[in-house]
Write a structure and sequence with these properties.
- The structure is a single chain.
- The protein has 519 residues and is of the alpha+beta class.
- The protein has helices at residues 7-10, 69-74, 144-158, 218-231, 255-267, 269-277, 311-328, 351-356, 370-377, 381-398, 407-418, 425-428, 464-472, 481-504, 508-515; strands spanning 20-22, 25-31, 37-47, 50-52, 57-60, 66-68, 80-82, 87-93, 100-111, 114-124, 190-200, 204-212, 235-246, 249-251, 284-293, 296-304, 336-338, 359-368, 432-437, 443-452.
- 32% of the residues lie in helices and 28% in strands.
- The strands form three sheets. Strands 11, 12, 13, 14, 15, 16, 17, 18, 19 and 20 form a ten-stranded mixed beta sheet that branches. It has a five-stranded antiparallel beta sheet with strand order 1-2-8-5-6. Strands 3, 4, 7, 9 and 10 form a five-stranded antiparallel beta sheet that branches.
- It comes from Hymenobacter volaticus.
- Keywords: NADP, Oxidoreductase.
- Residues 9-124 form the Hydroxymethylglutaryl-CoA reductase-like domain.
């Protein structure tokens, strides 16, 4: 199934700022931000008063492939394939444009969309030609020559010589889609903790934990907590929620229009769902939350995304759903639409993610035996439970998103080691820590991570050392993301146990002095 793009979304095809004069005329770019299609016909391009027919247009398809538009479209059976994410630059034989804003119309056809018309404005602006530019090669920017050119540029620009940054052990072409202007690597030490015994529904057994960090005592602290958990039978981990969001906003003339629209969305979700899911074999739309304020309707689309973290996946799916909505809603006029309203709180800590889940919602819990806690950590269950109550007040007063000690430490170290999007630590660091003394006198300790954003497929998970660390955990291949989420949660609980005990027993400062001094 393919969605129908609305005129509002068709404007997004045009790459703003791409309009420019060339030695032979005018050029601009269009990027496919909708869905993979076949470009079947080009009728005309009009810029201001100049209408240019296909015979006077050449298409730059990338990699130096520039062809007359009439020839490439008429001689390609079924039309020219135009994948998502690809750009086509239009070269027009026309009179040069003066500086200023110019209206642009591009009329064409694409299969299966049919007739399409893009109407936008763009400006001709004189660019200074003395700007310092980082070297790049349009043909192959991951070639050895391109990389060495950037390395020389960095050394000349900074007046420094770089010895270690230049050395790496993988084919730079594997970084395409992960890192632009690749110049070298940052070598981050990886320490091992564990093995950690995880009693999960997906992760079962002992796991060696790779932790990438430059913080002294971090690996040692997590390792200490892991050993205590292992002596008590391990850590029980459970994934209790799974959702990834994109949150568009629709703007109306008044609050009543927004309210009626929200009701229509709720009534129409069974028609919206297949439009969203048409863009992916993995993304599944679970539900849509509607939040109303002023004359705005905020829709929070919630998807499951398989083994991928899924931010890009759900963006594309929500884009398709919203295009269908814009085309089919017949109520009060929609004045503006934005694919992201800041309500998904991507790369930001937020209360809504704590309450409603973003990524995986995971609980790690354990019963720590009194004798083990006293022998290994030099604290009693009562001391830790009381310390937790006092800490809760501090977290409440400060407005923190976590009443525990340092879950971001373990999550960040694991994220760097395994190729996760490290900026997602902002959401993933949220935590709800709970402890109590059992009737047997032991310590029950658990943490809920409400927005743990992890992946075992896509992003940086397939890169050289990152994939090796995932293989160390047995988290490569289909259906392993929940296993990885359970392991991360177990590591986090071990860190909370270790640091909480160190603070309660006053070992915290002395441990840093012994293991973490690097000054």
């Amino acid at each position: 199934m393919i969605f129908t793009p609305s005129p509002m979304l068709l404007k997004l095809l045009y790459t703003r700022g791409s309009l420019r004069n060339t030695p032979n005329g005018i050029a601009f770019s269009i990027k496919n931000r909708l869905d993979t299609v076949r470009f079947t016909r080009l009728d005309y391009v009009q810029i201001g008063e100049q209408r240019v027919v296909p015979e006077n247009i050449a298409l730059d398809l990338g990699d130096g492939d520039i062809r007359p538009a009439h020839d490439v479209l008429s001689r390609t059976p079924g039309g020219l394939e135009f994948p998502v994410g690809h750009s086509i630059t239009f070269h027009l034989t026309a009179n040069a444009l003066p500086e200023g804003i110019h209206p642009i119309r591009v009329q064409f056809a694409a299969d299966p969309f049919g007739e399409l018309l893009v109407e936008v404005e763009d400006a001709i602006v004189t660019q200074p030609d003395n700007r310092t530019r980082i070297p790049r090669q349009s043909q192959d920017d991951y070639s050895e020559a391109a990389i060495q050119a950037r390395q020389r540029f960095a050394e000349e620009f900074s007046g420094q010589e770089f010895k270690h940054l230049k050395h790496y052990s993988f084919d730079a072409h594997t970084l395409q889609g992960n890192c632009e202007h690749f110049t070298g690597v940052a070598q981050i030490p990886i320490g091992l903790a564990g093995p950690l015994r995880v009693n999960g529904e997906f992760a079962q057994g002992d796991f060696l934990i790779p932790m990438a960090t430059t913080e002294g005592t971090l690996v040692a602290s997590y390792n200490r907590g892991i050993q205590v958990l292992n002596l008590c039978g391990g850590v029980k981990c459970t994934v209790i929620g799974d959702a990834m969001q994109r949150a568009p906003v629709f703007v109306f003339d008044d609050a009543r229009g927004a309210r009626d629209f929200g009701r229509w969305v709720a009534d129409t979700i069974d028609q919206i769902r297949p439009e969203a899911e048409s863009t992916s074999s993995v993304a599944k739309l679970q539900y849509i939350d509607t939040y109303l304020a002023n004359k705005f309707a905020y829709l929070r689309f919630n998807f499951s995304t398989g083994d991928a973290a899924g931010q890009n996946m759900v963006g594309r799916a929500t884009f398709a759903a919203c295009s269908w909505i814009l085309e089919h809603y017949k109520g009060a006029p929609i004045r503006h639409f934005y694919l992201e309203s800041n309500f998904a709180t991507d790369k930001k800590a937020s209360q809504i993610n704590v309450m409603r889940t973003r990524g995986k919602r995971v609980v790690a819990e354990a019963v720590v035996k009194r004798e083990v806690l006293q022998q290994r950590m030099r604290v009693t269950p009562e001391q830790l439970a009381y310390h937790g109550q006092v800490s809760n007040v501090g977290a409440f007063l400060s407005g923190a998103n976590n009443n525990g000690a340092h879950s971001a430490n373990g999550i960040t170290a694991l994220f760097i080691a395994t190729g996760q999007d490290v900026a997602n630590v902002s959401e993933s660091s949220a935590g709800v820590l709970y402890s109590e003394v059992t009737k047997e006198g032991d310590l029950y300790l658990s943490i809920t991570i409400p927005s743990l954003i992890v992946a075992t497929h896509g992003g940086g998970t397939g890169l050289a050392t990152q994939n090796e660390c995932l293989r160390m955990l047995g988290c490569v291949g289909r259906g392993t993301v929940n296993k990885f989420a359970e392991i991360v949660a177990g590591v986090v609980l071990a860190g909370e146990l270790s640091l909480g005990s160190a603070i309660s027993s006053s070992d915290w400062v002395s441990s840093h002095e012994q293991y973490g001094r690097n000054r």
